[in-house]
Amino acid sequence: KMKVAVLTSGGDSAGMNAVVRAVVKTAIIKGCETWIVREGYEGLVRGNSEGHRHTNSVAEKGHTSPRVKGTESQETEGFVHNLRFGDGELLKDGTGDHPGGRTLKGRYIVRVGWDDVRGWFSEGGTLIGTARSVAFRTREGRLTGAHNMIKEGIDALVVCGGDGSLTGADVFRAEWPGLVNELHNEGKITDEQATKHAHLKIVGLVGSIDNDMSMTDLTIGAPTALHRICESIDNINSTAYSHSRAFVLEVMGRHCGWLALMAAVSCGADFVFIPENPPDADKWADEMCTMIQSHRDIGKRKTIVIVAEGALDSKLQPIRAEQVKDILSERLGLDTRVTTLGHTQRGGRPCAFDRILPTLQGIEAVEALLDATPDTPSYMIGVRENKITRVPLMEAVKMTREVAQAISEKDFEKAMSLRDPEFRE
Ligand code: F6P
User: Fold this and answer.
1) What's the confidence (pLDDT) of residue 174?
2) Which of 9, 55, 229, 366 could form a disulfide with 263 if both were Cys (CB 3.0 to 4.6 A apart)?
3) What's the CA-to-centroid distance between 235 and ligand 1, angstroms?
4) What percent of the chain stands above pLDDT 90?
5) Binding residue per annotation — 204?
6) Strand runs (DSSP E) across 162-242, as ranges?
7) For residue 401, how far is its CA from the centre of ligand 1 (angstroms)?
8) pLDDT at 406
9) Whose CA is nearest to atom 10 of ligand 1?
10) Where does the signal sequence lie (predicted)?
């Protein structure tokens, strides 16, 4: 019986809970045992303190199968209540007690059942917590993580996160045999455990609002973040119109301009700056002013300029919202305000597509784990032309790094061709 654990890592994104739900439910249907790891890789490193292993979730009382009529009240006593009502202290450092008496103290790797993930479709963020773990970046941290997994008997891992988190997954799988050897040689695991855990099955799902991963068309959370941005721009539009003002909006996306570009298209922005298409450092201010003035000349009462947080000019100098504002005020005399949308873009309920995509990909992730052999590569589950795909995780991670490198070398054609292989063809 495969024991599958799922974790969310890096910046949260809408749809991560739907991933956990889909993985847990699919794995149960396929006859696996299901676990969650709290706080991303950090939870793997912290593990379960002695005395807190294999305790008190509904799953451990045997209710692991789909809900059967008549068992609801028993099942709703599930672990989910720990997560829901105990967030805050419980999820931050695992030291709090659940008001109802249950506790997650000292437990980061927790067995879960069908009802534990009920209703998780529509919840924003990630209920099992996430972190950008420093400890897991070290070999020592990964060694402890491997030990904690083996202690609980977990042999398959689903990681949902951005490119940093999936790089971690790739490194973990590559190092795994060495880690197991070391634990075995040090006498920390038995012969039987060393044999049983000789190979790690691992699969990645891309959860990130940035949509910056190569070899997939869309990342989980990006559509919701885009939707949030559109709603904000709609709000700003009405006040901008009233005062005939200009607004410069800074949006997230790290080194990727997808959110900014798609928001500009969705909202009819006057001008947009993205990292992938840096304007001429000596000309962009003039070009922007000419464009915006021409819009004003034909009667437009409001101006919207979108700046991706990673936007650069041709000399690779950052383009900042404040700088754009000063140009619009000084050269065009526009009453201009800056709005940095910040983390409102990342939070909140997932839109429909960020429920559908994680569900389809979560199912595929479990199937990929069940198909995995020591010789198959670890997969990243992607989506290409509306079809769910499996691509080698290592390749996708490598390509994403190469895109960042190409952008930093101003080789934008190469960057675009790596991000979108069809562009290359
Ligand atoms: O990668 C997701 C993201 O939201 C980026 O768009 C942004 O640059 C970054 O994370 C913000 O990180 P933090 O949550 O640490 O402020």
Assistant:
1) 93
2) 229
3) 23
4) 74
5) no
6) 201-206
7) 17
8) 86
9) 11
10) none
Ligand 1 atom closest to 162 (CA): 1
Q: How far is the CA of 408 from the centre of ligand 1 (A)?
A: 19
- Kindly provide the residue ranges of all beta strands, DSSP E only, lying in 280-378, ordered along the sequence: 303-308, 336-340
Residue 286 annotated as catalytic: no
* Residue among 130, 209, 255, 262 whose CB has most ligand 1 atoms within 8 A, to mutate: 209
Is 333 annotated among the ligand-binding residues?
A: no
ipTM: 0.97
164 is in an annotated binding site: yes
Any binding-site annotation on 345? yes
User: pTM for this one?
Assistant: 0.88
What's the CA gap between 378 and 176, in Å, rounded? 12
Looking at residue 81, its amino acid is: H
Where b means 16+ CB within 10 Å and e means fewer, 315-338 reads eeeebbbeebbebbeeebebebbb
- Whether residue 136 is predicted with pLDDT greater than 90 in this model: the reply is yes
Contact 266, 226 (CB under 8 A): yes
Q: Is the pLDDT of residue 297 over 60?
A: yes
DSSP state of 54: S
Give CA separation, 189 vs 13, 79, 192, in Å. 36, 29, 8
Token digits of residue 291? 């464009």
Among 12, 116, 210, 354, the active-site one is 210
Residue listed under structure tokens 């200009």: 246
User: Which residue's structure tokens are 């490193």?
Assistant: 45
- The pLDDT assigned to 54 comes to 47
pLDDT of 42 above 50: yes
How many other CB atoms are there within 10 angstroms of residue 191's CB atom? 8
Please write the tens of the pLDDT for every residue from 372-422: 999 999 999 999 999 999 999 999 999 988 988 888 788 878 887 777 666
Ligand 1 atom, smallest distance to 345 CA:
4
